[in-house]
Design a protein that fits this description.
The protein is an alpha/beta fold. It has 21 helices and 14 strands. The chain has two domains: 208 residues, 3-Layer(aba) Sandwich (Rossmann fold), CATH 3.40.50; 217 residues, Rossmann fold, CATH 3.40.50.300. Helix 3 packs across helix 4, helix 6 runs parallel beside helix 8 and helix 15 crosses helix 16. The structure holds adenosine monophosphate.
């Protein structure tokens, strides 16, 4: 693709070009350069693209263009012309925000709907004419069941992050939604990965699509500096705290496998004096929005998230990702570390790995086709962090550990002081394993968490 191509070359209407220029974009990204002209012509698209590639504008801009070029005589309340399905509330909100940004000079009405919030304001909003509806599948079906939305006028369907929708078990909901749409329509399917299942969905859905692939799915693994710290599960929370404070990191996204684990880690970090918040599916929408904006604004240093909650979050150029636990699926590791090092800025990703995760680590290394460096954390001595068996106050024990961590943290802001080998595998005494943290968090918990938890 010609790197000097401009948005005007792609044939976009003037109100859109104005919005693009106001957004500060000077050049289309590769996915935009490929998708926009094709979508403008009415073609179907099958695109392999992750968040960060500019995919949202890649479908939003040409869709807005089509709506502008072909105004309908048939604009009715609650009857969208475009339906965008996303797996998560956050992604739905971000996509609709993009529609507003790019459509600010186009007279187009959009709306976002997702579950977990009161349905009545959505019903009220649906009583007005509507062009673009961005929705998560479950809530959309609720509305369809109540006949508060009418999908018979949908001209363009977008499935965004289709792979994640399948992972989250939305396939039946998607099929139910498809059954409510007119047969004649344009379809755009975006997915970070092209599994057989995605191809199966695409085959039934898309009509002679162009296929666009803008980045190999493991590209992030080449851009991001990665490291593994071998440790014990029961030491992980102290270790995360020690590492973040020791390096003086100011914006860290930490992945946990469970909602419960996310909460507990965030609580622990707050107790250790860090500003931290957890984001996952059990949190109210307002709490999630608050946490995300606090993180983006720099008020929150550490955002602890489950995979699904973090998916699709538009947080640019994140300097640091920490995997508190490795994900079950190696591809999720690539998604996770893809949150950092975006837009060419260097990022790094650190994974805390215990002995039960070694197989997962090997799978990841096979996927990214390279070993990940084993790193030793300076001044980390888990023995001093070990808590007494349940009778002791964990907080009290932590206070003993803290001053040391803080002092080291202050003097060690440069990061890599000569490492002392973390005595992993040896330092954890039976007492540690039986401590209050160990019994809740110990190696066995991975088995309980092995089935991917809900976000
Ligand atoms: P997305 O992949 O859609 O999540 O977009 C990732 C980020 O890239 C968003 O913050 C967009 O605002 C930004 N973006 C999209 N297109 C462009 C462009 N052509 N030039 C610069 N930034 C862009």
């Amino acid at each position: 693709m010609n790197s000097t191509i401009s948005f005007a070359d792609l044939g976009l209407a003037e109100p859109l070009l104005r919005a693009i220029s106001e957004a500060g974009y000077t050049q289309p990204t590769p996915i935009q350069a490929q998708a926009i002209p094709h979508v403008i012509k009415g073609g179907d698209v099958l695109a392999a693209a992750q968040t960060g590639t500019g995919k949202t504008a890649g479908f939003t801009l040409p869709i807005l263009h089509r709506l502008l070029e072909q105004p309908t005589r048939d604009r009715k309340a609650g009857r969208p012309r475009v339906l965008v399905l996303t797996p998560t509330r956050e992604l739905a909100a971000q996509v609709e925000e993009s529609v507003r940004v790019y459509g600010k000079h186009a007279k187009v009405r959009s709306m976002v709907m997702f579950g977990g919030v009161n349905i009545n304001p959505q019903i009220a909003a649906l009583s007005k004419p509507l062009d673009i509806l961005v929705a998560t599948p479950g809530r959309l079906l609720d509305h369809a069941g109540q006949k508060t939305v009418d999908l018979s006028g949908v001209e363009i369907l977008v499935l965004d992050e289709a792979d994640r929708m399948l992972d989250m078990g939305f396939i039946r909901d998607i099929r139910k939604v498809l059954a409510l749409l007119p047969k004649q329509r344009q379809n755009l399917l975006f997915s970070a990965t092209f599994s057989d299942e995605i191809r199966g969905l695409a085959t039934g859905l898309l009509n002679d699509p162009i296929e666009i692939s803008v980045a190999r799915r493991n590209t992030a693994s080449e851009l991001v500096q990665q490291g593994v710290v071998m440790t014990e599960q029961s030491h992980k929370r102290d270790l995360v705290s020690h590492i973040i404070r020791g390096h003086g990191w100011h914006q860290v996204l930490v992945f946990t496998r469970t909602k419960h684990g996310a909460n507990r880690l965030a609580e622990k970090l707050v107790k250790d004096g860090l500003s931290a918040a957890a984001i996952h599916g059990n949190k109210s929408q307002s709490a999630r929005t608050r946490a995300l904006s606090g993180f983006k604004d720099g008020k929150i240093t550490v955002l602890v998230a489950t995979d699904i909650a973090a998916r699709g979050l538009d947080i640019d150029q994140l300097p640091q990702v920490v995997n508190f636990e490795l994900p079950n699926v190696p591809e999720d590791y690539v998604h996770r570390i893809g949150r950092t090092g975006r837009a060419g800025s260097p990022g790094s990703a650190l994974s805390l790995v215990d002995s039960s995760e070694i197989k997962l680590l090997k799978d990841i290394e096979r996927l990214i086709k390279r070993p990940i460096d084993r790193i030793e954390i300076p001044d980390w001595n888990p023995a001093t962090m070990v808590r007494k068996p349940a009778s002791g106050s964990a907080d009290e024990e932590r206070r003993h550990a803290d001053p040391r961590g803080r002092r080291n943290g202050a003097s060690n802001g440069r990061g890599r002081a000569p490492a002392r080998k973390p005595a992993s595998g040896r330092s954890g005494t039976p007492a540690a394993a039986g401590s209050s943290a160990g019994s809740r968090d110990g190696g066995r918990r991975r088995d309980a968490a092995a089935g991917e938890p809900k976000p």
